[in-house]
Amino acid sequence: QVQLVESGGGLVQAGESLRLSCAASGSIYSFYRMGWSRQAPGKQRELVAAITRGGSTYYADSVKGRFTISSDNTKNTVYLQMNSLKPDDTAVYYCHSITLSGRSDYWGQGTQVTVSS
User: Fold this and answer.
1) 9-40, pLDDT tens digit by residue?
2) Above 80 in pLDDT, residue 48?
3) Cα distance between residue 26 and residue 32, in whole Å
4) Averaged pLDDT of the chain
5) Cα end-to-end span (Å), the chain
6) Do residues 100 and 52 make contact, with C-beta atoms less than 8 angstroms apart?
7) Band of the pLDDT at 84, cuts 50, 70, 90?
8) Residue 52 CA: distances (Å) to CA of 17, 26, 38, 64
């Protein structure tokens, strides 16, 4: 019933930018937050950014100052603007819900971000 679909990943050079989008559908009004997490080979999955319906945001230290999370409730879409990308940002990026207790019940399929140089 709930579906999250990511888009916007790709291959870029270090220093360039990408914007990821997450289109949500279904019964999403119970979501406390929406988040972006990433999974890189050999590394722990990392929550990089999250946003509440009221617009409060969270960023991991590794991306703070470079990434910006935002949402458009009219379009039921969450965005992740990624600037000054580094090779260490290379990962599969997932959009997901976050409940009040911190559980992530719904996930998108993921979108690959690869940063060269």
Assistant:
1) 999 999 999 999 999 998 777 678 999 999 99
2) yes
3) 15
4) 94
5) 41
6) no
7) very high
8) 24, 18, 19, 17
Tell me which residue has tokens 């819900």: 97
Q: How many residues does the chain have?
A: 117
What are 38's two structure tokens? Answer: 């990433």
Amino acid at 92: V
Concatenate the DSSP letters of all residues of the chain into one string.
Answer: --EEEEE--EEEETT--EEEEEEEESS-TT-SEEEEEEE-TTS--EEEEEEETT--EEE-TTTTTTEEEEEETTTTEEEEEE-S--GGG-EEEEEEEE-TTS----B---EEEEEE-
